[in-house]
Write a structure and sequence with these properties.
heterodimer; A: two-stranded antiparallel ribbon; two-stranded antiparallel ribbon; 8 helices; B: 23 strands
């Protein structure tokens, strides 16, 4: 399955991915949050579309579904905004603040994927930090999210 | 979305910085839907920064001005285009009869198309006034004045650069260049990035060498680098260049706060690199003497060995085009115009798109605008400035009109309208044409178009302007003296830093929903040492006072700044009102960092007890 990956060695913390997400979804809402590790390292929190998603298991209304292509998608109309998924997510990519009774969660731009285009955040990323690749290929390249962060960010490297 | 496959895609360019990135907007039956990316365009490869994504929202923003508004007895009422242009024209003849033609001023902001800037000049000629100014922000104008160098290389070659010397915060002002700059660094071992910035910005994360100078000493630091480079090849240090030796090394190190070794190592790295690049980014406040800086960068590029290039970048998208259009004809500079407005010399002001209270927020400008007998403004949004106007005209954004613009590398592009202007908005070209018809001397569209074509294809500098090393050395020595003065009353140095989601002073982008959410109220950044000294915590308020005013701002403690340096966001009008918007004798904006004093608000102190 193809997923969005972050190459933290290239992220400039410009938040373009968040803006791209904001403007390419129906009601102008972003699914990409920001984490801060000390002041220097900021990184986008993007949904990993887990194989066994904790959010799906936690949802009391079955509003989160796994599509055939592996995308974990929330169903807007079913969601009551209880916030269970946000608590369940081990990566903290689902923002706990509830807007218009729906959780904000990445759907990997399924509408764009159907048209054969890459997700908006990947195409917009000005520094080339976000890539849309097959999981196996990335595993070979060893730029998995999180694993490369310690010791490889320019800041840590100099210390 | 996704159901309607018949949506059209229309392309346009982003004018929120001088790179000129191409983007597309999906249009559904004439209404903008979502942004789309043009991956085949070489400058940005489809990549955008937050500003580039705003198009969709700007095109049908609910706060856009929908119709002309006329102020009657202190209240605005909707009016027709005929009525508003007629009343403006009759006011123009009235003021002209009463105070003379010179009391009528016209301001246009450089993010208009070349044709519109020419048409505005034509309008000034029709009225018979000299008071026309293109509102260049501090920095853009000085960079374009001689030597007037623009980037001439190919943007694809940036990936091959071995050493990039970046002055300013490149990844915030022009984020789309980031991929190529970072790629170049990772390409081979030994490639490096040198960043000169008083703040440890996101750009500085990627620097191998971050020269954290004292604010406002960039020119001195570059002279230090230049002298080091010249010392590697003494044969170049002859003739006029010998005058550079008059600048004492010791003074440079003392002023910049850097050691001899740091500068020498950086100079050696830059000189030894086979391919080098010097990037000069715009900064609203903090970089001093930008024109000399451009000259020194040019000298640096000419005198270092190997293949070196200089790339000046501008705040405004059409800065180069606007400079070409308005530099001839004996018009006034923008700061001079501001002075005349403040002093009450201008009685009637026609303002195309410039939010004056946002670009120079000072009490004098506010008073000047209130004094005006008649103030007409064409704008996208209503803000403080527009509230002072007697006539507000809804103007079209650049995505709603056609015309030509020149970007940072002097590349000329044609803008095509993405959608029809929102509601009753008209492009400024149409407004000027309508107004000049009312005045009885119509501005001819065809003639303007041809003239713009001819002017915009001319090269920027004709190579006539030779550098006067003597005067440069004089300026540098003056700068050394200025920075050496310790100010007892105002001990802190205040700079402004921009944010990726805001354009220049933020007058347009403050209305954008995403930016509103991301960038909260103004704050002041302080180093941990200063905060400890003042006994303030994160979030406490401090009084910031300068010679121009005093305001209270919440503190954000950061390890990005050195002791004695504070920083405020450039997109906040409130924070920028601490800066004095004074004019230098040359008629340019003061771009030096401001001297301020800080003291904790009493309520904080009581809390800590």
């Amino acid at each position: 399955m193809k997923k969005v990956f972050v190459d933290i060695d290239r992220c400039i913390a410009c938040r373009t991915c968040s803006a791209a997400c904001h403007y390419s979804h129906d009601e102008f809402r972003s699914t990409i949050g920001y984490g801060e590790l000390r002041e220097d390292v900021r990184l986008p929190f993007i949904c990993r579309h887990c194989e066994e998603p904790a959010c799906l298991a936690a949802c009391p209304r079955d509003a989160i579904k796994k599509l055939d292509n592996g995308v974990i998608k929330r169903m807007n109309m079913l969601c009551t905004g209880c916030g269970s998924c946000a608590i369940a997510c081990p990566f903290g990519v689902i923002e706990p603040d509830i807007r218009s009774y729906t959780i904000t969660k990445c759907d990997l731009c399924v509408a764009r994927l159907e048209e054969g285009k890459e997700p908006a955040c990947v195409l917009a990323c000005p520094s080339g930090a976000l890539t849309f690749e097959e999981t196996d290929e990335v595993a070979e390249k060893r730029i998995l999210v999180g694993s490369s962060m310690s010791g490889h960010h320019p800041i840590f490297r100099r210390m | 979305m996704g159901l309607d496959k018949e949506m059209e895609q229309r392309e346009s360019f982003c004018l929120f910085c001088s790179l000129g990135c191409k983007f597309a907007v999906k249009v559904d039956r004439g209404a903008p839907v979502s942004p789309e990316f043009c991956s085949d365009y070489p400058i940005n490869e489809g990549r955008l920064c937050p500003k580039g994504l705003y198009a969709v929202e700007l095109l049908d923003h609910p706060m856009r001005i929908v119709a002309p508004w006329i102020k009657d007895n202190g209240k605005f009422r909707e009016a027709s285009w005929e009525e508003s242009l007629h009343s403006l024209a009759s006011k123009i003849s009235e003021v002209k009869g009463k105070y003379g033609a010179q009391s009528i001023g016209i301001i246009i902001d450089p993010n208009h198309t070349n044709e519109e800037i020419l048409a505005a000049q034509e309008l000034a000629r029709v009225i018979g006034t000299d008071s026309f100014a293109c509102s260049f922000p501090a920095g853009d104008w000085e960079l374009l004045c001689p030597p007037g160098v623009v980037f001439t290389g190919k943007i694809e070659d940036l990936e091959e650069v071995n050493c990039s010397l970046i002055i300013g915060d490149l990844f915030v002002t022009h984020p789309v260049l980031a991929r190529r700059v970072i790629e170049a660094k990772y390409k081979a071992r030994g490639n490096s990035i040198i960043v000169i910035d008083p703040k440890r910005t996101n750009t500085a994360w990627y620097a191998n060498t971050h020269l954290q100078n004292r604010p406002g000493t960039e020119a001195l630091l570059l002279v230090g680098l230049l002298k080091s480079i010249l010392s590697f090849s003494p044969e170049k240090l002859k003739g006029k260049m010998k005058k550079l030796e008059e600048i004492p090394d010791e003074a440079i190190f003392r002023a910049t706060g850097l050691s001899t070794r740091e500068i020498a190592v950086a100079a050696r790295t830059f000189n030894d690199a086979e391919k080098g690049l010097v990037v000069l980014c715009p900064g609203i406040r903090g970089i001093q003497d930008i024109n000399s800086l451009a000259w020194i960068c040019k000298l640096l590029v000419d005198n270092a060995k190997g293949n070196k290039e200089f790339m000046p970048l501008f705040t405004f998208g059409n800065a180069v085009g606007a400079f070409k259009m308005s530099s001839k004809g004996g018009w006034k500079s923008f700061p001079r115009m501001i002075e005349e407005i403040s002093s009450g010399k201008i009685k009637l002001l026609i303002d195309f798109g410039e939010d004056l209270l946002s670009s120079c927020p000072s009490a004098e400008v506010q008073k000047g605008l209130e004094q005006l007998e008649y103030f007409a403004v064409s704008s996208l949004f209503v803000s403080e400035t527009e509230n002072l106007a007697q006539l507000i005209l809804p103007c079209a954004s650049w995505m709603e009109k056609s015309g030509t613009v020149n970007f940072f590398d002097d590349r000329r592009e044609y803008l095509e309208p993405v959608v029809m202007p929102a509601w009753a908005a008209k492009s400024d070209l149409e407004i000027i044409a309508g107004l000049s018809r009312e005045l009885g001397a119509p501005v001819e569209g065809e003639k303007i178009k041809q003239e713009a074509e001819a002017l915009s294809s001319q090269s920027l500098s004709k190579g006539k302007e030779k550098l006067d090393i003597g005067s440069l050395v004089g300026r540098i020595n003056e700068l050394i003296k200025e920075t050496a003065v310790e100010d007892e009353e105002y001990p802190y140095v205040l700079i402004s830093s921009s944010a990726t989601g805001h354009f220049a002073d933020g007058s347009i982008t403050r209305n954008v929903s995403w930016a509103k959410e991301m960038f909260p109220a103004p704050f002041i950044e302080l180093s941990a040492e200063d905060a400890r000294e003042m006994k303030v915590k994160d979030g406490d308020e401090v009084w910031v006072s300068s010679r121009s005013g005093e305001i209270a701002l919440p503190v954000r403690i950061t390890d990005r700044l050195r002791q004695g340096v504070a920083s405020v966001p450039a997109y906040s009008v409130k924070a920028r009102s601490i800066f004095g918007w004074k004019t230098t004798p040359e008629g340019e904006f003061q771009t030096a960092p401001e001297r301020v004093s800080l003291r904790a608000k009493r309520s904080n102190l009581e809390e800590t007890k």
